[in-house]
């Protein structure tokens, strides 16, 4: 059966990962959370006190990083493993969110992660979300989505997510974190966040998760039909 590649890009806390994950499950595709990969690198750099401006330290650290995703048999969650250790909960904490955009902006880091991502998605039948999937990782993806949402709504969603994990964080701190990440993501020299010319905009501000998933699945069906006709 023919399959396609679905690239989901956009700003943080727009629902990219959750939507991509559910779309992948519905279509029977693989799901790759590229944001989790950069968070895992950030965690490793943090734990090993890697100086971000030291190219040798960064290169050496990247040589020692292996990231994989495993499905939790108990709850079906797609969990991130860093060098064999489950780091799914740790990489979602705010201190990682505060550092991940700076780490992601390093050219060597992006080159290493993009190489891994392309390898993971080589056989198609994949839903991948991130910042540069449709522009850099898979510019030939049959379906490209670009998600946006109102910053205040994004901050509220992020606060709820953190609260559910037991992290009580003031909304103003989250808003500042979102503003900082947006600025770094959109202005960095290496693979900045931008909408691909052929990407479809989805503003998730007032959409439910089910509505987001349904819309992407409909678009996926249309893209698959178009690919089959070629």
What would you say this structure looks like, in words?
The chain is globular. With 230 residues, the protein is α/β, with parallel strands linked by helices. The strands form 2 sheets. It has a 5-stranded parallel sheet. Strands 3-4-5 form a 3-stranded antiparallel sheet, with helices on one face. Strand 4 (78-82) and strand 5 (85-86) form a beta hairpin. 51% of the residues lie in helices and 16% in strands. The chain has helices spanning 16-27, 34-47, 55-63, 94-104, 107-120, 133-137, 151-164, 171-187, 209-229; strands spanning 5-10, 30-33, 67-71, 78-82, 85-86, 126-130, 143-148, 200-203. It is built from 9 helices and 8 strands. Helix 2 packs across helix 4 (94-104).
What separation lies between the terminal Cα atoms?
A: 15 Å
Structural class of the secondary elements?
A: alpha/beta
> What is the strand arrangement across the widest sheet?
2-6-1-7-8
The sequence of SSEs as H and E is: EHEHHEEEHHEHEHHEH
DSSP strand count: 8
Beta-strand content estimate: 15-25%
By DSSP (H or I, 4+ residues per run), the number of helices equals 9
The backbone outline, from C-alpha atoms, is globular
Q: Give start-end ranges of low-pLDDT stretches.
A: none
Mean pLDDT: 93
C-alpha Rg (nearest Å) = 17 Å
Largest sheet: 5 strands, parallel
What percent of residues adopt helix (DSSP H or I)?
40-55%
């Amino acid at each position: 059966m023919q399959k396609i590649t679905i690239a989901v890009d956009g700003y943080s806390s727009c629902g990219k990962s959750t939507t991509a994950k559910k779309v992948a499950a519905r279509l029977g595709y693989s799901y790759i959370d590229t944001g989790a990969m950069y968070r895992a690198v950030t965690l490793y750099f943090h734990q090993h006190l890697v100086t971000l401006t030291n190219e040798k330290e960064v290169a050496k650290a990247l040589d020692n990083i292996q990231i994989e995703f495993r499905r939790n048999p108990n709850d079906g969650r797609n969990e991130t493993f860093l060098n064999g250790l489950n780091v799914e909960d740790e990489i979602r904490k705010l201190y990682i969110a505060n550092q991940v955009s700076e780490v992601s902006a390093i050219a060597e880091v992006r080159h290493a992660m993009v190489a891994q991502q392309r390898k993971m998605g080589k056989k198609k039948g994949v839903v991948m979300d991130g910042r540069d999937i449709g522009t850099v990782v898979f510019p030939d993806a049959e379906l490209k989505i670009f998600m946006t949402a109102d910053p205040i709504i994004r901050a509220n969603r992020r606060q709820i997510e953190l609260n559910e994990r037991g992290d009580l964080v003031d909304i103003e701190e989250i808003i500042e974190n979102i503003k900082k990440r947006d600025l770094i993501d959109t202005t960095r020299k290496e693979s900045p966040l931008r909408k691909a010319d052929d990407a479809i905009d989805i503003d998730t501000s007032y959409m439910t998760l089910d509505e987001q998933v349904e819309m992407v699945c409909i678009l996926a069906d249309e893209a698959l039909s178009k690919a089959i006709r070629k």
